[in-house]
Design a protein that fits this description.
heterodimer, A: 327 residues, alpha+beta, Immunoglobulin-like, Cytochrome Bc1 Complex, Chain D, domain 2, 5-stranded mixed sheet, 7 helices, B: 557 residues, mainly alpha, Cytochrome C Oxidase, Chain A, globular, binds copper (II) ion
Chain lengths: 327, 557
């Protein structure tokens, strides 16, 4: 367990860590410069202009326009550099690449349930291979949580009612703490765990080891029958609802004339609040499954619908519409 | 007091606002802004100590990684109630409702605020709100965090959320009415000759603060009311299971609660802008720029709220816009800092207690403001958000900045409020204790935050223990710095030397009248013929003429 050593900067273990620390040091340098400047001036003035005679007054200097301009512009420029640099890191942080290994993460009071796409489940543990882009697709069963990995320098809230994503590429093998960073009630502080970053071979061995759980798509297939989705959604397209084959990743025409990208969020919404977006040519007959299915089951159903994929078309789909499975 | 020694000793006035009338009724039904300010002084001090006790228990608990003192349920209540007591019932009213209430009318040469009865009503609303909050603390406590994030607060929390929310809602009206009262007062009650650009900076600061109070408070009051209704009647505003949106709550909440930081810090800045010229015996450097910066902070402050939500799932482009605006709002704060420093240039500087507090303010506000840059920058915020880094940052601003300003103001105006001086050496000592204790408490929190310790954790990994112990040790020093002033200020009420009208001396109108002032403030309505902080043209202060006039920097303001 080589962990946060006691130095000021904690260990850097992801593609983001170096950039975040560099920007931190830039801001720190700029801040120290200005803080020292002000402190030194205050000390010098205090010594040099201290009152020497009880009735003495200061020299009535009222101000200086050039000085005001100088000390408006310099901080402005420096602050804009910080903004721009920070924005570059952030854009990278928010836009996952398309070749990610996906892991589903569900936060609930007070534990993390994680599931790999081939079915391996973990609780408060996350195993990932080093050097590989990983994307966490996260949902919450109850309140807002936040998945945060300080050694990777990233975090993202896990919000009920929607998916959020968090991607990274671990750069160093080892065990790193992850925390829930959004206060979520009584045992918030116990919602922590470990990311284990492994060599790819080791990771593959880990994946195949252990009791093999049903993969999410398989579990989804069962649910699809259990909740009678199959009575309306026939693969032929002749049922009361549209066929779901090839849906995932495609563009769907809606009754109001607009089109949407069928991604995780869309499928989730179609199950939980079907009336929000009605597919063109269909009646709004689908009942809402809000409250009937858990977030975990939604993820399984989504995985099943994804697996109904016709061979993947060359995709210009954005990061929000990831492709399943390992390449 | 050195300044008083050189002047003829003054008598304590025979009739003043404190002895104008006696008995409980004369206080509880008063419409005198000065007495109402004292009612506030007592009540905000009460909440400060309630909040302080919670803070002390938090720090004790965190001495060990497993938590040394209380269960998680209790710990969560402690930090929540600490936040609610300190923010809504101490920091927000402290400077405006105590010092602003007392001194704004005096500083502009008015007899009272524009609406004295509404002023009293504000205090009663505050007390009702505070009472409800206390009721919530005692009947099950509150464990939602002072931020009341939904759906935790509106569905999942098992604590007394409804009375607390109602209390804050009612207290909001107190704020709104105070803001309204201040705005109307500044517009309509200025003495003859008191033009806008002769207003002391403290008045400008309270003016800017009042704008925020009026525009922002209704939003937070409504938002909390909606959360309360969701909790009580299961109306779906924020709970996704009822079709609501939890992130909407955060937008609405921060729309007020970010500007609320400026409600705390702007008046403190105003106090500092009074103290530094007085103890440098020099005009405030860049008066108009300072006034404009206060207004700019108030206005831009309304456009940055979503910097609390960079990792809350909002859109990437929204985050970019809010980060940009946040970095902009840093600029007027920087300008103010430079102007305070420049005010000391070629001054005649003395180091009585208020000036020591002003130095303390400058130091802590610098750290607080500069660390805000880390948080406003998207790339760093994704790491430090919701860690102890942010806890340290906002304590530097809200305790380091606002409370130092408040203490500075209290010491600066105490001779006027009470008519007596406190022991200056002891007071200076306690200001230094406060400064050191504060840094010991909160500086280690920056380090543990960057190392990854999340906030609001009742237990933590052992590698953070050393820093936590340091922080707790600092808190004990800090406590001494808060308790000492209570003792010597109370002592001075009886035993302090008579202060006289203008002990420092200072140029403001409030120093022209008796200490303590008569109920009607001025025996004759004053007429203003001088600019703010104009020591040069004030023979009545008994000071020298300036040795040399500096032409290079003149004639702009
Ligand atoms: Cu949590
Ligand atoms: Cu803010």
């Amino acid at each position: 367990m080589q962990l946060q050593n006691s130095s000021i900067l904690p260990e850097q273990a992801s593609n983001f860590a170096g950039g975040v620390d560099a920007l931190t040091l830039y801001i720190l340098g700029t801040s120290l410069f200005f803080a020292l400047l002000v402190v030194v001036l205050v000390v010098i003035f205090s010594l040099k202009y201290r009152r020497k005679k009880q009735t003495e007054i200061g020299v009535p200097v009222h101000g200086s326009v050039p000085l005001e301009i100088v000390w408006t512009l310099i901080p402005l420029v420096l602050a804009m550099v910080m903004f721009a640099w920070g924005a570059v890191i952030y854009m990278d942080f928010r836009r996952a690449p398309s070749d990610t290994l996906d892991v589903y993460v569900i936060g609930k009071q007070w534990m993390w349930k994680l599931q790999h796409t081939d079915g391996r489940r973990e609780i408060n543990e996350l195993h990932v291979p080093v050097g590989r882009n990983v994307k966490l697709i996260m949902a919450s069963e109850d309140v807002i949580h936040d998945f945060s990995i300080p050694n990777f320098r990233i975090k993202m809230d896990v919000v009920p009612g929607r998916y959020t994503t968090l991607w990274f590429r671990a750069t160093k093998t080892g065990r790193y703490h992850f925390y829930c960073s959004q206060y979520c009630g009584t045992s918030h502080a116990l919602m922590t765990g470990w990311v284990t970053v492994m060599e790819p071979a080791e990771y593959a061995a880990w994946l195949s080891g252990g009791a093999q759980d049903a993969n999410p798509a398989g579990a989804g297939e069962k649910l699809f029958t259990q909740y009678s989705c199959n009575t309306c959604h026939l693969p032929t397209g002749k049922g009361r609802g549209p066929s779901l084959v090839g849906l995932y990743g495609s563009k769907v025409k809606l009754a109001d004339g607009t089109t949407v990208q069928a991604d995780d969020a869309y499928v989730r919404e179609s199950i939980l609040s079907p009336k929000a977006k009605i597919v063109a040519g269909y009646q709004p007959l689908m009942p809402s499954f809000q409250g009937l299915v858990t977030e975990e089951q939604v993820l399984s159903l989504t995985a099943y619908i994804k697996s109904l994929q016709a061979p993947a078309p060359a995709s210009e789909a954005p990061a929000e519409a990831p492709h399943m499975g390992k390449k | 007091m050195s300044a008083t020694e050189s002047r003829p000793a003054e008598q304590f006035p025979e009739k003043h606002y404190l002895n104008a009338d006696y008995g409980i009724r004369s206080w509880l039904l008063t419409t005198d802004h000065k007495r109402i300010a004292l009612l506030y002084l007592v009540s905000v001090t009460f909440f400060f100590f309630i909040g302080g006790i919670f803070a002390g228990m938090i720090r004790l608990h965190l001495l060990t990684p497993k938590g040394a003192l209380v269960s998680p349920e209790v710990y969560n209540r402690l930090f929540t109630m600490h936040g609610v007591a300190m923010i809504f019932f101490f920091l927000i009213p402290a400077i405006p409702a105590v010092l602003g209430n007392f001194f704004m009318p005096l500083m502009i040469g008015a007899k009272d605020l524009a609406f004295p009865k509404i002023n009293l009503l504000s205090w009663y609303l505050y007390m009702i709100g505070g009472g409800l909050a206390l009721f919530s603390f005692m009947s099950g406590g509150l464990d939602t965090g002072w931020t009341f994030y939904t759906p935790l607060s509106s569905v999942y929390s098992n604590s007394a959320v409804a009375p607390a929310v109602l209390g804050i809602f009612i207290n909001g009206f107190s704020s709104i009415l105070t803001g309204l009262n201040f705005l109307v007062t500044v517009h309509t009650m200025r003495a003859p000759g008191m033009t806008w650009f002769r207003l002391p900076m403290f008045v400008w600061a309270n003016y800017a603060t009042s704008i925020i109070m009026i525009l922002g408070t209704p939003v937070v009051a409504t938002t909390l009311a909606l959360a309360g209704m969701e909790r009580l009647f299961h109306l779906g505003f924020f709970n996704p299971q009822l079709g609501g949106d939890p992130v909407l709550f955060q937008h609405l909440f921060w729309f007020y609660s970010h500007p609320a930081v400026y409600i705390m810090i702007l008046p403190a800045m105003g106090v500092i802008s009074e103290i530094i010229p007085t103890f440098s015996r020099k005009p405030l450097f860049g008066y108009k720029v300072m006034a404009a910066a206060s207004l700019a902070i108030a206005v831009i402050g309304f456009l940055v709220w979503a910097h609390h939500m960079f990792v809350a799932g909002q859109s990437t482009y929204a985050a970019l816009a809010f980060s940009f605006l946040t970095m902009l709002v840093a600029v007027p704060s920087a300008i103010k800092t430079f102007n305070w420093t420049a005010t000391m240039y070629r001054g005649s500087i003395s180091f009585e207690t208020p000036m020591i507090y002003a130095f303390g303010f400058l130091g802590l506000f610098l750290v607080g403001g500069l660390t805000g840059l880390f948080l406003g920058t998207l790339g760093v915020d994704i790491h430090v958000h919701d860690t102890y880094f942010i806890v340290a940052h906002f304590h530097y601003i809200m305790v380091g900045g606002a409370v130092m300003g408040y203490m500075g103001g209290l010491h600066y105006w105490w001779p006027k409020i009470s008519g007596r001086m406190y022991p200056d050496t002891l007071a200076r000592f306690s200001a230094v204790v406060l400064f050191i204790g504060f840094n010991l408490t909160f500086f280690p929190q920056f380090l543990m935050g960057y190392a990854g310790m999340p906030r609001r954790y009742h237990s933590y990994p052992p590698e953070f223990q050393v820093l936590n112990i340091l922080s707790t040790a600092g808190a004990t020093v800090l406590a001494v710095g808060y308790i000492l002033p209570i003792i010597y200020l109370l002592w001075s009420l009886r035993y302090g030397p008579v202060a006289g009208r203008n002990p420092w001396p200072s140029t403001g109108l409030e120093w022209q009248t008796d200490s303590p002032p008569p109920t009607e403030n001025f025996h004759v309505t004053p007429t203003v013929t001088w600019e703010a902080y104009d020591f040069e043209n004030r023979p009545d202060l008994g000071l020298d003429k300036p040795l040399k006039t500096d032409d290079s920097g003149r004639g702009h303001d």
